[in-house]
Write the structure tokens for this entry.
Amino acid sequence: MHCIKIFSQKLSHQGVFKLAKSTGQLQQEIAKYLKYMENVNSSSPHTLRFYALDLAQAFPGDGGPNITTTRSKYKFKSEEILKLARNAQNGWAKLSPASRNRKTSTLKSFFHWMYEQQLIDKDLAHQLVSPKVPQRIPHFLSVDEVLSVLKTLDQLKDKNLSALFHLLYGGGLRISEAINIQIKDLDISRGQIRVLGKGSKERLVVLPKKSFQFVQRLAKSSGGDYLFGDQPIPQRKAYEMIRQLGVKSMLTHPLHPHALRHSFATHLLSSGANLRVLQELLGHQSLQATQKYTHLGMDHLARVMEKNHPLGRDKKAKSQLKS
């Protein structure tokens, strides 16, 4: 069986996916789909790599002799395409629910595109079932832990680390967004930062005044086009900087960049921030991605209730109330 060979080559800032060796009509359509997702949907190179991998696993060759039609205006037989997809899903059975869900989403997106392009006679996306992914409540810092980290930052006097922390916790940025900020993205007069988020979509971020002062201070001493110098900080290095900050602050859990973003969202929501406003601040495309923080807020409230309510505080109080 021939294997589909899809590889990524960075020909521009966005990156372009090419089909290295076409082994059949379906593989040619996959190549067109990947270009469509890049050029029209502005999918990131990272996302496109996953799309290419998932589709290569699902359709590793021509798919058999009966995958194409000869007497219909449609190019492919829906039944045969769906059969291949379900076989692929069976092969992914041992993966985590999140991985299977992502791969199934890739197939659904590809099938929807095929139907729009009139390559198949029905939208097969509706016939694929996505596994349920358990809702994971992300780790976040308590206010006391944030104060402990701020105290450590004050002692370290590291401009890069301070600015990075305040971008992640003060602005709720993703680590990839923070490390790629350029000096030209800063609006000093308004205290705003232009951020390039997922799917190359821009948004304006407003930091608390104190947080923006750390960013402004670093910008003055940068000496390069980027906030952190001549080029962005490598993402792995930025992760390690934050991890070490957690160690030096003697936190009980390992600290990672996304925990600071979660903390930003949780503390705003628990202080009364509107969910729609939080969606804009986080750069989420859908409100569903933001709604997990409502569960997180309730989990926090439950812990507070258990700790402070007489019925949860101690057994003695419970016995007294019963009597």
In short: The first helix runs from residue 25 to 39.
